[in-house]
Amino acid sequence: MADEQDAGSKKRILLVDDDQEIIETLRIALEAQGYEIIIARDGNQGLAMVEREDPDLVILDMMMPKRSGFLVLEKLRRTRPVPIRVIMITANEGSRHKAYAEMLGVDDYIRKPFPMDQLIDSVERLLT
């Protein structure tokens, strides 16, 4: 496991969220766990970053400008031959949204606010 923490082989996580405070909080917590963090501020930028950076995992907000998390997830599932791991985070309470995300193949669905341990546990489960 120690070898995975070497600079060249860190697991890379793309954070896609338009909320600067959430991005910073997640970035700090995940970097402390040894992950390399890439940031996109909206859904369109998120899709471009997935293509360019090929991260190991995407943490995706549902409600964003330009392209929602659902549209990003739909496109990722349609266009990638090997599915990328995706955790969707949302403040939305509706169970319909969760069911739709699961139908699209989301790997985990976490409602805000959430304890950071819950997110880190999910990340570690999906990346090992």
Please summarize what this structure is.
The chain is an alpha/beta fold and 128 residues long.
Q: Can you put this structure into words, describing what you see?
A:
With 128 residues, the chain is of the alpha/beta class. The protein has one domain: Rossmann fold, CATH 3.40.50. It is 45% helix and 20% strand. The protein has five helices and five strands, in the order E-H-E-H-E-H-E-H-E-H. Helix 3 links the parallel strand 3 and strand 4. Helix 2 packs parallel to helix 3. It starts with 11 loop residues before the first strand and ends with a helix.
End-to-end separation: 10 Å
The helix/strand series, from N terminus to C terminus, equals EHEHEHEHEH
Strand order of the largest sheet: 2-1-3-4-5
How many β-strand runs?
A: 5
Search tags:
5 strands, single chain, alpha/beta, disordered N terminus, Rossmann fold, 128 residues, globular
Write the layout of secondary structure elements.
Elements: E1 12-16, H1 20-32, E2 36-40, H2 43-53, E3 57-61, H3 69-79, E4 85-90, H4 95-104, E5 108-111, H5 116-127
Parallel strand pairs: 1-2, 1-3, 3-4, 4-5
Helix pairs in contact: 2-3
